[in-house]
Every structure is written in structure tokens, then in C-alpha cells.
């Protein structure tokens, strides 16, 4: 196993690598998984996504990580912490994307909780956010199970589409 960042009961989170390209395609090229991004990614867009994560590892020390299911060793999704623009500044966001066949098994919640704890305990953030498209009820439910509360609504523009997003926040003082 490559450089492990986090471990939970069923999952290992590690840095994404270029060799994960095909596995990333399984996730980022699925139109159902990517509906919140207005559609599946091309091979080129998957590479741009990976390159962005690699830059974030280098610049921020964190980003979305590969989520590997311990039992199978399979890369089932991505979860981690990225800076997102909010309220005129940059905030740490717990984000998650999982392959469709691993939905509704508690993996996203398990990984998101571990990332929130990492953000508080290792990265020393006082607050963490999840900014989720208003139509993505499943991800909103993960945020709630992660101890987050709705604090705002904002509009994001992606691929020329106006998308309302709900801003969720968890504070270290509330844990």
C-alpha cells in the first residue's frame, strides 16, 4: 500500500497517483456519479482533475485522497479536504465522490468522518465545510451524519450552468 493518510475500520485513504488513472475514470466518467458536475468527464478532464489533486498535495499538503476498500483492495472513491471559495475567502471542505456500486453502504460517511477528524486534529482547522449541490440529497445526508449543519446557500457556475449549493459546517468546538 502506498503512502497511507488515514485508516478506518473498512477503508484506507492514500494519495492519488498517476497509476490510478483508470480507476479514476471508473468514477469520474460515470454520468450518474458526476451529475452534480453536469456530466461525465473525458479522459483529458480526468487527467486535469488528477493533476489538480497532485498540485494540491504539493501546495496545501492535502486534497482528495484515493479511498481503498480494505477487503478487496479496490479503489472505490475519493474523499479528502480541499480549499473552496466561500464568503470572499477560502475554507477547508470535506469532499467525497464514490463509485455507484459502493453507494448506500456507509463508505462515504465513514471516510468523511475520518477526514473531518483529520482536519481538526492534524490540520488544526477550527471549522470544516461541505458545499453540496442542492439536488444532491445523498451527499447532504452524509454531511449531516458527519455532524454538519446547514449554514448558507450559494450559487456556483459549472459548465455554464447555475447551480445552487447548500453550505454545511462543522466546528471543532461542537465535537
TrEMBL record:
<dbReference type="GO" id="GO:0016747">
    <property type="term" value="F:acyltransferase activity, transferring groups other than amino-acyl groups"/>
</dbReference>
<dbReference type="InterPro" id="IPR016181">
    <property type="entry name" value="Acyl_CoA_acyltransferase"/>
</dbReference>
<dbReference type="Pfam" id="PF13302">
    <property type="entry name" value="Acetyltransf_3"/>
</dbReference>
<dbReference type="InterPro" id="IPR051531">
    <property type="entry name" value="N-acetyltransferase"/>
</dbReference>
<dbReference type="InterPro" id="IPR000182">
    <property type="entry name" value="GNAT_dom"/>
</dbReference>
<feature type="domain" description="N-acetyltransferase">
    <location>
        <begin position="11"/>
        <end position="173"/>
    </location>
</feature>
<keyword id="KW-0808">Transferase</keyword>
<protein>
    <submittedName>
        <fullName>N-acetyltransferase</fullName>
    </submittedName>
</protein>
Amino acid at each position: 500500500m502506498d503512502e497511507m493518510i488515514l485508516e478506518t475500520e473498512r477503508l484506507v485513504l492514500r494519495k492519488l497517483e498517476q497509476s490510478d488513472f483508470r480507476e479514476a475514470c471508473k468514477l469520474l466518467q460515470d454520468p450518474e456519479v458526476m451529475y452534480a458536475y453536469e456530466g461525465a468527464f473525458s479522459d483529458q478532464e480526468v487527467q486535469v482533475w488528477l493533476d489538480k489533486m497532485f498540485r494540491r498535495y504539493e501546495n496545501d499538503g492535502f486534497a482528495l485522497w484515493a479511498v481503498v476498500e480494505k477487503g478487496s483492495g479496490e479503489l472505490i472513491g475519493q474523499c479528502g479536504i480541499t480549499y473552496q471559495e466561500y464568503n470572499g475567502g477560502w475554507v477547508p471542505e470535506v469532499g467525497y465522490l464514490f463509485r455507484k456500486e459502493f453507494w448506500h453502504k456507509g463508505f462515504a460517511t465513514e471516510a468523511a468522518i475520518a477526514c473531518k477528524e483529520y482536519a481538526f486534529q492534524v490540520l488544526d482547522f477550527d471549522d470544516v465545510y461541505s458545499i453540496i449541490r442542492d439536488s444532491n440529497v445523498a451527499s447532504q445526508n452524509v454531511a449531516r451524519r458527519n455532524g454538519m449543519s446547514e449554514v448558507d446557500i450559494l450559487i456556483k457556475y459549472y459548465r455554464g450552468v447555475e447551480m445552487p449549493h447548500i453550505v454545511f459546517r462543522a466546528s471543532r468546538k461542537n465535537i
